[in-house]
Amino acid sequence: TEPFVVGSKSFTAVAINTAAKAGEWIKSKLGDFSRVDEKYSSHDLVTEVDKGSEKLIKNLIMTHFPSHSFLGEEGVEPGPAASAKALEAASDAEYLWIVDPIDGTTNFVHGFPFFSVSIALAFKGEVIVGVVYDPIRDELFVAEKGKGAYMHGKKTAVSLDATLAGSLVATGFPADREGALPINLRGVQAVAPKVRNLRVAGSAALHMAYVAAGRLSGFWEVGLSSWDMAAGALLIIESGGKVTDTQGKPYELSVRNVLATNGSIHEELQQELAKAEATGF
Ligand code: IPD
Ligand code: CA
Ligand code: CA
Ligand code: CA
C-alpha cells in the first residue's frame, strides 16, 4: 500500500494542518499561562500550554488516523531513560506519530521568541513525513521522504559552506545536567574557536529546520529524545544534508546524540567533537 495516504487523507496534509493549529494556539498563549512546573529539575520545565498543545495534536491526528500510534513528549515520564523506553515500547507500531508539542519550552516560558511544534510520522521505524512549525515567524518546514523538503512551497536546500571556518553552527544545552551537559560543553569548547560563530537558540527542532534551509551549516547536541529530532532529521536529509549520531552512525529514531550538517562540514565537525571526547556518554 502507498504509505503516504489512507483513503483520501494525506498524512502530510494532516501533519501540516495540525502543526499550524497547535502553533497558532501556542502563540496566542505566549505570556498568558498561569503554571510552570518543573519535571525532573529546574532546567526541565512544562506548562499547561505544552500539555494543551499535545492534547490538541493528539486529538486531531487520532481523529484522522485512529489505527495509528502516538508518541508525544508530555505523555512520557521525564528523563532520558523513560524517553528511550517509550520509543522502544512504540517501536512495533506500523505508523507512529512522534510529536514535540512545544520544542523550546524554556524560551516559551521566558518570552524568548524561538520555539516550534515538531510533528513526524514514521512508517516501520523510518520517518516519512516531518513538519516543523515556527508560529512566531509563521515559517512551516515540510518534508516527505523521497519527495524533497519545502518551506511555504519553496524547496529548501542546505548551505554550500565547505569548512567549519566559514560556517554558522548551533548546539543546545540539554536539561540533563549530569550526563549530557558536560559532554556538550566539551564540544562547545572544541568547536567554538573553529567555526565562524556558534548559536545556542534553544529549540533543537528549529535548529535542524535551519540546517535544512541553509541558515545554519551544522547542529549537534548530546542527550536529545526522538521527538526533538524526528521531523528535523527528514527535513535535512530531504534538503541534501547529512544526519548521523555524533560518532557518524546513520540517523535512526533511537539516536540521542545528533550531528546534523550540510554534508560538506560533517567530517570536520565530527572530528572536532571526537578530539574533545564530546561525542557520547
Ligand atoms: C529542548 C530543546 C532545547 C534542547 C533540549 C531539549 P523541550 O526541548 O530542544 O533546545 O537543548 O535538549 O530538551 O524540552 O523544550 O521540548
Ligand atoms: Ca521538555
Ligand atoms: Ca524538545
Ligand atoms: Ca517539548
Description of the structure:
- The protein has 281 residues and is an alpha+beta fold.
- It has 2 domains: 151 residues, Fructose-1,6-Bisphosphatase, subunit A, domain 1 (Fructose-1,6-Bisphosphatase, Chain A, domain 1, 2-Layer Sandwich), CATH 3.30.540.10; 112 residues, D-Maltodextrin-Binding Protein, domain 2.
- It contains 8 helices and 16 strands.
- It has a 7-stranded mixed β-sheet with strand order 5-6-7-8-9-10-11, with helices on both faces. A 5-stranded mixed β-sheet has the order 13-12-14-16-15, with helices on both faces. It has a two-stranded antiparallel ribbon with strand order 1-2.
- Helix 1 runs antiparallel to helix 2 and helix 6 runs parallel beside helix 7.
- The radius of gyration is 17 Å and the shape is globular.
- The mean pLDDT is 95.
- The structure holds D-MYO-inositol-1-phosphate and calcium ion (CA) (3 copies).
- One calcium ion binds next to strand 6.
- The site of one calcium ion (CA) has 2 residues, from loops.
